Amino acid sequence: MSSRVAFEAWQMVFPPIGFIVFFTLFIWLFVRAVRMKQSSLNHLENLPLEEEITRPVTHGQSE
Questions:
Q1: How far is Cα 29 from Cα 23, in angstroms, rounded to an integer?
Q2: Which 3 state secondary structure label does DSSP give 7?
């Protein structure tokens, strides 16, 4: 059954291109994370723990 699938030569170009794109993106993100400033790193570390600034919701009502 698998012998019925015939790949053309042009279709064999896509797997290496996909790998190169993925690998390049991975390396770029890794370098960006390693070179991140300490202030940005501290901000991202505490992001879920920061207190939110809450404002009352008026829903279009004038005060």
A1: 10
A2: coil
| pLDDT digit string, tens, across residues 27-52 | 999 999 999 999 888 888 887 765 66
CA distance 6 to 50: 56
Q: Which two tokens stand for residue 35?
A: 């070179």
Distance CA 42, CA 51 (A): 15
The residue whose two tokens read 């690998």 is 23
Closest CA to 19 of 10, 27, 8: 27
* Measured distance CA(30)–CA(25) in Å, rounded: 9
